[in-house]
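A brief tutorial aside. Many learners find it easier to grasp structure tokens once they have seen a single protein encoded end to end. The record that follows does exactly this for Glyoxal reductase. Read the sequence first, then the structure, and try to relate runs of similar tokens to stretches of the chain.
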Amino acid sequence: MKKITDLQGTFTLHNGVEMPYFGLGVYLSEDGQEVINAVKWALEAGYRHIDTASVYNNEEGVGKGIRESGAQRKEVFLVSKVWNSDQGYDSTLKAFDDSLDLLQVDYLDLYLVHWPVNGKYKDTWRAFEKLYRDGRVRAIGVSNFLQHHLEDLLQSAEIVPMVNQMEFHPYLVQQDLIDFCNKNTIQYEAWSPLMQGHIFEMEEFKQLAEKYGKTIAQIVLRWDLQKGVVTIPKSSKKERIIANADIFDFELSDEDVKLLDGLDRGKRFGPDPDNFDF
């Protein structure tokens, strides 16, 4: 397992691209000043990974935030996702162009299939492979793909996805899926790492926060990284963005990692990838 060292640290994807293992998520950050500020504050604090999606309707603000921050484009690992209604071969290629236009960039570092839309995600993936071969995106991956979706995709895919971004937190570990991804060199990534705020009600986290002298959020985000899972907590508050990243001066013991693993109850706070209707 690669050492977790600092905010600019990376995990290496199977094509050799270095992906920062900690980033800013901007889901629900409003386009305009709110998301511009969040991105600027994150980059000023040392973040180098920003995760958006076309359905968030804030790509334009994300692009502005990056430009206004003064960070060089090549320093920022920029991620977006194709939305379900845009899936399919030609429509995915168009959606990618639309995202680049809004972000005002000429490539993405990672592009993800947002959800496994039945009957469409294989054609979507063919478009992803074209974008990757054309050098328009440095890495391609999926989001919300369970093992059977991945197995189905891998039957026809010429390029194995580099990333799978999943709902991941102590109540939804899905260790079997993590193991499957690891075996196929697919980097696991967490969304909703703080259980939409429910993490703050849990006694186990209050005790660990006290033990390590850290916040509950810092404990769970550190756990993500020690499990080899890329994580992108979302916030539009400056102090929270800075605090979330303050997780490189301590390490959870193996026993405490196991303790958190043991909280798993297969509970989702977001939609089920086998049963969504959007």
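Self-check: Residues 10-261 form a domain with the TIM Barrel fold (CATH 3.20.20.100). If you spotted this yourself, you are ready for the next section.
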